[in-house]
Design brief:
By secondary structure, the protein is an all-alpha fold. It is 78% helix and 0% strand. It holds the Pfam family TauE.
């Protein structure tokens, strides 16, 4: 299915959905929560929606990564990119063959814990704190493989998980975490995209159209983060995580 099979209105709907998703994703992650349901609502099959979503999300994560470039702590991210890429390759290959219901309940539990922990910890991420994991390689081996796999397998909420672990385990502020995780997000997106190109198919016309929207949204969102102190990030983070919990719960218990 390509754009030639769509009503003209879908061009505009998917473009504006991508702009909004790129804006949100560049700040707190969770863009897939917006774009994948939009693709499904337009009649795209689930696996094809996931594959096409990777194409458009690459543009958003790359734009945010470039915009944040001077503010990132690049040396430690090299390890993160490497292990995240490995995890994403395994996850994106596995999603083509595995039913994801069992994984969804695990994700639901983790998201709920994340939401409750941050909601009831007022100072979480306001300032830098003492790191719980001193060895940065160990952090990236564990989190890179785990979150890279999840991003390749399902995706929605990956950016939110990255922000949480960076604040909780590395002692970053929410703003620091938001900035540093975009390169990791891009690495898992691009690897997953290559796997889907190799093993499956992608709606290139839709993906490129939405990719243009992602560039606009990600640029605006990342510029907003850099120009402010980032105090709004926690509130937006909680909103996105709550919506992700609702979406995953709906998929698991209702559908």
């Amino acid at each position: 299915m390509g754009l030639e099979n769509f009503d003209v209105i879908y061009y505009f709907v998917l473009l504006f959905v991508a702009i909004f998703a790129g804006f949100i994703d560049s700040i707190v992650g969770g863009g897939g929560l917006i774009t994948i349901p939009a693709l499904l609502a337009c009649g795209v099959s689930p696996h094809l929606a996931i594959a096409t979503n990777k194409l458009q999300s690459v543009f958003g994560s790359l734009t945010a990564a470039f915009t944040y470039y001077k503010s990132t702590t690049l040396p430690h991210l090299i390890w993160g990119v490497f292990f995240t890429a490995i995890g994403a390759a395994i996850g994106s290959y596995g999603v083509l063959f595995v039913e994801d219901d069992s994984l969804k309940i695990i994700i639901l539990i983790c998201l709920t814990f994340t939401f409750l922990y941050i909601a009831f910890k007022p100072n979480f991420g306001k300032e830098e704190s003492k790191a719980k994991i001193k060895n940065i390689k160990i952090f990236h081996i564990i989190c890179g493989l785990t979150l890279g796999f999840y991003d390749g397998f399902l995706g929605p909420g990956t950016g939110s998980f990255w922000i949480f672990v960076c604040v909780f385990l590395l002692g970053f502020s929410m703003k620091q975490a938001s900035i540093n995780t975009k390169i990791l997000n891009f690495s898992s997106n691009i690897v997953a995209l290559f796997i889907f190109i190799w093993q499956y198919k992608i709606l290139w016309d839709i993906g490129l159209l939405m990719g243009f929207g992602q560039i606009i949204g990600a640029f605006l969102g990342s510029k907003l983060v850099l120009k402010t102190k980032g105090h709004f990030i926690k509130i937006l983070f909680l909103i996105v995580v709550a919506l992700t919990i609702i979406k995953v719960s709906w998929d698991y218990f209702i559908k």
